[in-house]
Amino acid sequence: MYKVIAVPVDLAHADRLPKALETAARLAKAYDATLYYVGATTETPSSVAHTPEEFRGKLERFAAERGAALGIEARAKPLVSLDPAVDLDRDLLKAFGEIDADLVVMASHVPGIRDHLISSNAGWIASHAKISVFVVR
Amino acid sequence: MSEAVQPDYTVDSTDYEVGQDNVQVLGLDIHNPVFMISAVTIVGFVIFALMFQEGTAAFFGWLRPWLTSTFDWVFMSSANIFVLFCLFLVVSPWGRIRLGGADATPDYSYAGWFAMLFAAGMGIGLMFFGVLEPVYHFQNPPLGVNPEDVEAARAMGMAATIFHWGLHPWAIYAVVALSLAFFTFNNGLPLTIRSAFYPLLGDRVWGWPGHIIDTLAVFATLFGLATSLGFGAEQASAGLEYLFGIPATDVTKVVLIVAITAVALISVVAGLEAGVKRLSEINMVLALALLLFVIIAGPTLAVLTGFFTNAGHYFVNVLSLSNFVNRQDFDFMHGWTTFYWAWWISWSPFVGMFIARVSRGRTVREFIVCVLIIPTLVSILWMTAFGGTAIEQIVADDYQGVAETVAAYVPELSLFKMLEVLPLTMVSSFLGIILVIVFFVTSSDSGSLVIDTITAGGKTDAPVVQRVFWATFEGLVAITLLLGGGLASLQAAAIATGFPFAVVLVVMCWCTFKGLRADPQMAR
Question: What is the pLDDT of residue B10?
Fold first, then answer.
């Protein structure tokens, strides 16, 4: 039913979203789908990486490790957001389109980036995405 | 340049992680202690200055002439160093280093990039001084030119104005912007001013020396911005009084600052792409419309030929104008040049950081040509159109409208008096007021982005509420200084914060050079 599943991940807080990652992994296994870890970074150095290239490498390693551990096909989809404090939702949506995802699994908030603001990333994505969205609470 | 210089430092020599000194409280993500020191001092300053308005005015009234006359040589020699440094980099082999690494590509088109750096860099000043300054220098020419000699005075008036809006200010910005872009994108250091000093201070920049540099940058930005916001409020309210008879009282100005800050808040919450960039582009279109209108409705031919003759006058006189030894024209040198240099320097952390953030993917050479040469040409055209037209009105038509605003020194009215004798006065003056307001907003929103980034330890993804805090306080500082002594206090505050930064910037040039020499792109 699903061929490409996307799961947004914040490498700075990867430990804080095990439920979403776990759900995405099980779904990917059940449907024999490709799982994409979608990570957002800035052009300017961040706590995770000094450059977008370094970020890509870290995300690819993360995907490879998870994929091997879970026995699924896992890939990395890094995206560069020019102003993530504002544009993250829109940038995520664009990334889902670029990998032709047909299901998104995400925690109601991607912790660390905007979890203290009123709006919830998943809420916005769910109402704007044309594909299925699985919100993990 | 394959005989690679052995770098004294490398990117890997620091373990510093962006945001490692940050604290997360109340949903904020802020640098400790830069945010606290800056915020507490600013809040304290606003309260103190409002309580003791007369004392504030007296203090700043004394401070400005003291600084500009005692330290004129500091401002003037450092600005000259910046111009030479930039010109040197354009022709040097380091010009081919690409910001963000050899494979980086620019994120913004030339048009969008240029709109943002110009709107942030000069903004309201062009509206405020574009008409007044050429006329003022025409009537009181520097370097001992006789004001009775109309043609010589006209040439010197234009040259002196362009001097203040040409290579020197943009070199000041370029130095800061290049240095920040380089250390951030090529060396992976956080996007704050302190990172530029890594080659000099090593890991000590993450400690107190760095805290002091960043805090100074926050103050310089806040006061520099507040000066421009003050100019904007004065001019917009003068325009409203002139056009619609709304009295230009303190109340009007405060209401204007509050309303415009509110628009800036919307822009800053909408983000870099949907808010700041879009507004900058609207801003450029409006500015271009007004510029074309003045050229077409005014003495078209005189402006078009004037562009080349004025550029010539500028290049002939720029050396003697930048010299600060054995000068007699102290009114010009202290009252204008030194003030401008201090003002541009106080703006440089803000404009520099903003330009840096949107400049990834350009080469050093491309960067300097675009930040130094092209804006200078635009300034020459702008000053020729606005100031040249006003001088022509005096010389050819004996129209004294602008001259009266100069004699009475009400610069906020000069633009409207110049437009008065052109056709469609209502439309063009209204466009002028709108432009002042949009320039105001574009300065305020990009300024808040910058201060937020510095006080978040270089994080560009800190919560939006922090931008809201800084945008609000920029407005408050502008109101406070306007009430406590008006523009004189604003200007003095900008100069006072610009002074320590002049020294900081000279050191920054040296650090940038050291960094460029060690860049791996030079070894290939």
Answer: 55
Buried b (16+ CB within 10 A) or exposed e, A42-60: bbbbbbbbbbbeebbebbb
- Of residues B32 and B361, the one with the higher pLDDT is B361
CA distance B458 to B108: 21
With CA atoms as reference, report the closest residue to B389 among B220, B140, B158.
B158
Give the lowest-confidence range in B14-18, B308-312, B338-342, B415-419.
B14-18
For residue A17, the model assigns a pLDDT of 65
CA A43 – CA A52 distance, rounded (Å): 6
Contacts of B483 (CB under 8 A, 6+ apart): B50, B53, B250, B254
Range in B155-159, B165-169, B251-255 the model is least confident about: B251-255
In Å, the largest CA–CA distance within chain A is 39
ipTM over 0.90? The verdict is no
Q: Model-level pTM? A: 0.85
CB atoms within 10 A of CB A62: 17
- Crossing angle of helices B34-51 and B53-70, rounded to 10°: 120
Average pLDDT, chain B: 85
Q: What is the pLDDT of residue B330?
A: 83
DSSP-derived secondary structure for B203-241: GGGGSHHHHHHHHHHHHHHHHHHHHHHHHHHHHHHHHHH
Query: How far apart, in whole angstroms, are the C-alpha atoms of residue A89 and residue A81?
Result: 10
Question: Which value, in Å, is the radius of gyration of the alpha carbons in chain A?
Answer: 14
Contact between A45 and B463 using a beta-carbon 8 Å cutoff: no
Nearest-angstrom CA–CA distance, B164 and B80: 12
Q: With a cut of 90, say whether residue A108 has pLDDT above it.
A: no
Give the distance from residue B104's alpha carbon to the nearest chain A alpha carbon, in angstroms: 10
For residue B39, give every residue at least 6 positions away whose Cβ sits within 8 Å of its Cβ, in sequence order, or none: B455, B469, B473
Strands A34-41 and A4-8 come out as parallel
Inter-chain contact A86–B458, Cβ cutoff 8 Å? no
pLDDT category, B179, cuts 50, 70, 90? very high
**How high is the mean pLDDT of chain A?**
82
For A113, the closest chain B residue by CA position comes to B461
Q: What do you get for the CA distance between the two ends of chain A, in Å?
A: 23
Which of residues 75 through 114 in chain A touch B, CB cutoff 8 A?
81-87, 113-114
Question: Which residues of chain A are within 8 Å of residue B20 when distances are taken between CB atoms?
Answer: 47
Per-residue pLDDT at B313: 94
Instruction: Look up residue A108 and give its two tokens.
Output: 């109601």
Q: What are phi and psi of B169, to 5 degrees?
A: -60, -40
Q: Taking CB atoms and an 8 Å cutoff, what residues of chain B touch A87?
A: 271-274
Taking the C-alpha atoms of residue B172 and residue B152, their distance in angstroms, rounded to an integer, is: 29
Nearest CA in chain A to B269: A86
Helix axes B486-517, B53-70, angle to 10 degrees: 50
